[in-house]
Write a structure and sequence with these properties.
The protein is of the alpha/beta class. It is built from eleven helices and nine strands. It folds into two domains: 129 residues, 3-Layer(aba) Sandwich (Rossmann fold), CATH 3.40.50.1370; 156 residues, Aspartate/ornithine carbamoyltransferase (Rossmann fold, 3-Layer(aba) Sandwich). Helices cover 43% and strands 14% of the residues. It has a five-stranded parallel beta sheet with strand order 7-6-5-8-9. A four-stranded parallel beta sheet has the order 2-1-3-4, with helices on both faces. The structure holds phosphoric acid mono(formamide)ester (CP) and norvaline. GO terms for molecular function: amino acid binding; ornithine carbamoyltransferase activity.
Length: 303
């Protein structure tokens, strides 16, 4: 039976550990995997803009001997032209997998139900699993382990936060989510991560206090306004500015490293000087997007 990757919520700790190990092995031994997708084609549907996800999937698939077709829904020619189920069923007639970046998670569920091939979530309103895998690969390489680390996410509780929570809990990584009041992560996802964490030893804390991030090994932040959110920056800036990840926050918390999925907004959610500092893992995360996704496709396509 085909498997999709829409969220990590239904994965076991062992399965995610294996995927992380596969990503690391594939990164270290690229020649051994140069043909695992030979003759395979991936259709990539993007309802929203992308730099990292689009390019890392395309180049990554190419490095595995496969081929990616990019479908641009932003131009408006595809969006709304037919139902999601029909689009997915058609794509599955030719493609061996579908990668999709969509506004609504429900669209991914429709894709997955209608397509006879694996569907990979390349970001939706609720999750960004490919990002989380790259981030834990980055922490794994940097610290030599993920289990027992503490990651403190500071900023808007969003799709990136949710996937970090679920994947982190599965991997035994303690999570502190620090948001302004009213911008907390989805309580149902926090609850799910807490339940997973009870089995893996990961603690999950949702708070509005920066001081709760003291002792974290690494801080993580993301944009205050996700794609599709047209709230004017001026109306939220005052609320979020105390949560800016900067040198002072690194010193107060004692965190050694900083992560950000990017695109980053210099001197808003993170200072430009911190992005450019030796504490920044941003480019390693970006690099690892490709290795994580290559492992996902290799796993899902049984290559
Ligand atoms: N981090 C990330 O998903 O970047 P893009 O939006 O550029 O793909
Ligand atoms: N939370 C951001 C992530 C971008 C990669 C967004 O959804 O726009």
């Amino acid at each position: 039976m085909k498997q999709d990757l829409l969220t990590f919520s239904d994965w076991t700790p062992d399965a995610l550990h294996s995927l992380l190990e596969l990503a690391l092995t594939m990164k270290q031994s690229p020649a051994a995997y140069a043909n695992v997708l030979a003759g395979k084609s991936v259709a990539a549907v993007f309802e929203k803009p992308s730099l990292r996800t689009r390019v890392s999937f395309d180049i990554g698939i190419n490095k595995l001997g496969g081929h990616m077709v990019y479908l641009d829904c932003q131009a408006g020619k595809l969006a709304g032209r037919e139902d999601a189920v029909d689009m997915a069923a058609n794509l599955a007639c030719w493609a061996d997998a579908i990668v999709a970046r969509v506004f609504s998670h429900q669209t991914l569920e429709q894709f997955a139900s209608a397509a006879k091939v694996p569907v990979v979530n390349a970001l939706c309103d609720k999750y960004h699993p490919c990002q989380a895998l790259a981030d834990y690969l980055t922490l794994y390489e940097t610290f030599g382990q993920v289990k027992g680390l503490t990651l403190a996410y500071v900023g808007d509780g969003n799709n990136v936060t949710h996937s970090l929570l679920l994947a982190g809990a599965l991997l035994g990584c303690n999570q502190v989510v620090v948001t302004p009041p009213g911008h907390e992560a989805d309580p149902a996802i926090v609850a799910k991560a807490t339940t997973i964490g009870q089995a893996t030893g990961a603690s999950i804390v949702q708070t509005t206090q920066i001081s709760d991030a003291a002792g974290a090994d690494a801080l993580y932040t993301d944009t205050w306004l996700s794609m599709g959110d047209d709230t004017p920056l001026t109306t939220i800036k005052e609320k979020f500015m105390p949560y800016q990840v900067n040198e002072d926050m690194m010193a107060i918390t004692g965190a050694k490293y900083v992560l950000h999925c990017q695109p980053a907004h210099r001197d808003l959610e993170i200072t430009g000087s911190l992005i450019d500092s030796s504490k920044s893992l941003l480019m390693l995360e970006a690099e690892n997007r490709m290795h994580g996704q290559n492992a996902i496709l290799t796993h899902l396509l049984g290559a």
